[in-house]
Amino acid sequence: FTKRGKVRIDMRKFVEKMIEGMPEEMIGKATTPAASYLFAVNNECEKLLEEMSSIFHRLTAQGLFLCVRGRPDIEKQQL
Predict the structure, then answer these.
(1) Rounded CA gap, 8 and 55, in Å?
(2) Closest listed residue to residue 69, CA positions, set 22, 27, 7
(3) pTM of the model
């Protein structure tokens, strides 16, 4: 505790490791993690290669962990 009776959650190192593990083409900025087409399904697109699928799965799981444990503000808002 840095202040008596208060706890501070710091997950900056966790986020830094997530970013370091991202492929170069995924690194960028966004105003919100929830684009308007977030739940749109494109049945015509090609499936991800096994390696990219594994990376996507890992980053999604890490993002969910981060959201629940330390950054509930990044959770998709329910409209």
Answers:
(1) 30
(2) 7
(3) 0.66
